[in-house]
Amino acid sequence: MRIAHISPLWIPVPPQTYGGTELVVSWLCDEQVRRGHDVTLFATEDSKTSARLVPIWPRSLWRAHLKTPHAVFALMYEKVCSMQKEFDIIHDHCEFYTAPYSNFLKPKMVMTLHHPLNEESIILYKKFPKINFVAISRNQRKSGPGINIVRTIHHGLPLERYPANFTPKNYLLWLSKIAPEKGIAEAIDVARLTGEKLMISGNILPSYADYFNFRIKPLIDGKKIQFVGASDFEKKIELFRNAKAFIFPVKRPEPFGLVVIEAMACGTPVIAFKVGSMPELIEDGKTGFLVSSVEEACQAVKKIGQIKREDCREHIKKNFNLKRMVNRYERLYKKILKNEKKA
After folding, report:
1. What is the maximum span of the chain, computed from C-alpha positions, in angstroms?
2. Measuring CA to CA, how many Å separate 134 from each of 53, 72, 82, 129, 190?
3. What are the residue ranges spanned by the domains of the chain?
4. Over the stretch 28-64, which tens digit does the pLDDT of each residue have?
């Protein structure tokens, strides 16, 4: 198949630090190329891929610091429109940016919903019933009534890039984008109440600089609570595989939570608030604990030794591997194209 992927331009593919969507896009492209598909990726020039790269701007927009970055998105859609005859399927990952342009694109479109659905995005997506929307969790799918969601496909990761460790060091880990809804303050509360060491890693976006400086930074003592900055892939894996537990007290209806399966792939159990997709990813009592409060999270930390790290690894191997994800997308593409021929 001739497949085009449209990636958000804020971060390169794959991301150098933070960027769950861009990491999934990278894995999808590379695996589809490996399977013999003709794959094109629309992204920024600082991206690296085995697919044919159509560079839209020299640097990812968060690095470029442009005065009107959204103009670059318009440049991308002009390029997509001009090349559309070269594709059987256009697989979009930009969501609300791309939706209006779908009216001008003739190839069938698959759009993966990487972000939480809210009132305004639901209103928008309902206006485009010809787009084949894909939810990344059952919980996310339920939150979008009326949208043409044709399939739920969980993310999957290349397990060989996540070496497991069954004899971890003595620390808890929180790793994500530094934002209030990701539960970083609650993770610190859990560590302080249990007396555990907590390692914190994440990107500080300009919009949350004040939150970090005035709410989080005063709690970091450099001993029990340590901030190690943003992590590239290698540093992230090292943190995951050596942690005795990953703490994720997320406060929003997380549509998926890639960091959760990354932790378990390394053999690390997860303690997460029971919201959004968390019950779909974590087997409560077997690969981690689902909790409803900081107090319950503290109790779960005390029981973390009951979790077999081998079970965490096996859970991801069985349910959230890359080949399974790519197989499901391939079947969806073929079904859409087959129905098009019948029509």
Report:
1. 65
2. 24, 25, 25, 13, 35
3. 2-156+321-342, 159-319
4. 999 999 999 999 999 999 999 999 999 999 999 999 9
Q: Is the peptide bond before 249 cis (omega within 30 degrees of 0)?
A: no
Statement: the pTM of the whole predicted model exceeds 0.90: yes
Burial letters 229-264, b for 16+ CB under 10 A, else e? ebbeeeebbebbbbbbbbbbbbeebbbbbbbbbbbb
Structure tokens given for 142: 């339920």
* Pairwise CA distance, residues 288 & 272, whole Å: 8
Q: Can you tell me the distance from the alpha carbon of 133 to that of 110, in angstroms, rounded to the nearest whole number?
A: 6
Q: How many CB atoms lie within 10 A of CB 295?
A: 12
Fold exhibited by the domain 2-156+321-342? Rossmann fold (3.40.50)
Residues 147 and 140: their CA atoms lie apart, in Å, by 11
Distance of alpha carbon 224 from alpha carbon 209, whole angstroms: 22
Using the Cα atoms of residue 92, residue 98, residue 100 and residue 103 in order, give the sign of their dihedral. Answer: negative
Reported as a pLDDT band with limits 50, 70 and 90, residue 343 is low
Enumerate the H helices of the chain as residue ranges: 20-34, 61-64, 70-83, 119-125, 138-142, 184-194, 209-211, 233-242, 258-265, 278-281, 294-302, 309-319, 322-342
Of residues 88, 126, 330, the one with CA closest to residue 113? 126
Separation of CA 180 from chain center:
17
CATH architecture of 159-319: 3-Layer(aba) Sandwich (3.40)
